Amino acid sequence: MSAGTQSGVLVGRCDYNLDPKHRFTIPSSWRAVMGSPDYVYVMPDAREKCLNLIPPVEMEARLAKLRERALFDPSLAKALQTIGSVSEQLVLDVQGRIRVSDKLLRFANLTTTVAMVGSVRMVKLWNPAALKPDVVDQAELGSALESVGF
Hints:
Layout: E1 13-17, E2 23-25, H1 28-33, E3 39-44, E4 51-54, H2 56-66, H3 74-86, E5 88-91, E6 97-99, H4 102-107, E7 113-118, E8 123-126, H5 138-147
Antiparallel strand pairs: 1-7, 2-6, 3-4, 3-5, 4-8, 7-8
């Protein structure tokens, strides 16, 4: 299948062990929400030591906005080069696995296990040790809901 429309939101948490080839599986339910894409994008987060797994539909929406800007805008060209140099387009195998480069695995300190955290429009890839204990923090949830006007 090819990248289709995103039909839901990416929520929840799944922890996966990296296999001997340093691959991990994107859950089938999340692949379905993403529109059963053939590939995904992975890039370092600009503020936290994690990776962002971005569905093609979400990336295309962002690129559409960039295409409205001048093709030879020097600041845009520099920014896109920076983004492109640290990002990857990864093809999913038939089992829904991807292989993130060693450089990005090192950036996020992903050595044995990947904690995949749904972030509504994308997935955050974390070292499980970097996350808070698996409890519901009502104050944090309340602030998050308020900040997005939910």
